[in-house]
Design brief:
This protein has 267 residues and is mainly beta. It has no helices and 24 strands. Strand 19 and strand 20 form a beta hairpin. This is DUF1102 domain-containing protein.
């Protein structure tokens, strides 16, 4: 079944302004009269698209998850002024970010990080987005059958049973323990062209319900290649110490148990 959308038409000779899913408005304001027509999704002036997500396969290099895409087919730029997340009060969707301005003919992804979702668990997510154009403000509700989606953490390819760390691409990592504050050593690869490569160790107290990168001060663009937790080191599965690089830079996975900290070249 095709999703139907409401398009707002500015009255008094105005041009088409915004569109949203059927029944999606919680509120709407317009400076001039507004006429509501129903059209198919492929001609909606403001598109809203989403799909079910699986972790870790749908994660990006930095460990972020693209949640919803908003498309602007209007002849002027629009702004995202608010994003509301409903994940059944689980709090697993965190650190939501987006570029608020969408130029005409462009799309913007609303991204976030998923924290504390155990393997084979899932959560239903509803995302409501408020957008503003010239003279019109509207909300695109996420609490409809066509817009509600599920985030699930896969239990496939789980790696070593004893692994306590999961890596997302080469940018972020998560401690697979629930609701704990732990002191860990995090190993970061600092690649400085012309100055040599270096592994930097940061000792940090972390909350296991959150991803690691956001809890490390001064990490910059350095990449997490290893974590020592309770005396055991878990190395990024794609890290090659001989070449000081990742075998597959876009891939993550479960940490590989090691007797020593990750090294680089002759270290």
């Amino acid at each position: 079944m095709k999703r139907r959308n409401l398009i707002l038409l500015l009255g008094g000779g105005g041009s088409a302004a915004l569109s949203t899913g059927t029944g999606a408005f919680s509120s709407m304001e317009a400076e001039r009269g507004v006429e509501v027509n129903v059209v198919d999704d492929d001609v909606a002036y403001v598109g809203y698209s989403e799909s079910d997500k699986t972790i870790p396969s749908d994660l990006k290099n930095d460990g972020a998850l693209h949640l919803v895409t908003i498309t602007n087919r209007f002849s002027e730029k629009i702004r995202i002024t608010d994003v509301s997340i409903d994940d059944d009060d689980t709090g697993v969707v965190a650190d939501v970010s987006y570029d608020p301005v969408i130029e005409t003919g462009h799309a913007e992804d609303i991204v976030g990080h998923v924290e504390g979702l155990a393997p084979d668990d899932s959560v239903d997510v509803e995302i409501t987005v408020t957008v503003e154009g010239t003279g019109v403000t509207a909300q695109l509700f996420g609490d409809t059958e066509t817009r509600r989606f599920t985030i699930e953490r896969s239990d496939q390819d789980v790696g070593p049973v004893d692994s306590k760390v999961e890596y997302f691409g080469n940018g972020n990592a998560e401690i697979l323990r629930d609701n704990e504050n732990l002191t860990v050593d995090v190993y970061l690869f600092d690649k400085n062209p012309g100055q040599g490569d270096e592994i930097v160790t940061k000792n940090a107290e972390i909350d296991t319900d959150k991803n690691l990168r956001g809890q490390l001060s001064g990490a910059g663009g350095d990449r997490i290649i290893g974590v020592t937790l309770n005396g055991t080191t878990y190395v990024h599965p794609q890290w090659n110490s001989g070449t000081c690089s990742f075998e597959k830079s876009n891939n993550g996975g479960f940490g590989v148990l090691s007797d020593s900290a990750p090294s680089c070249g002759s270290e």
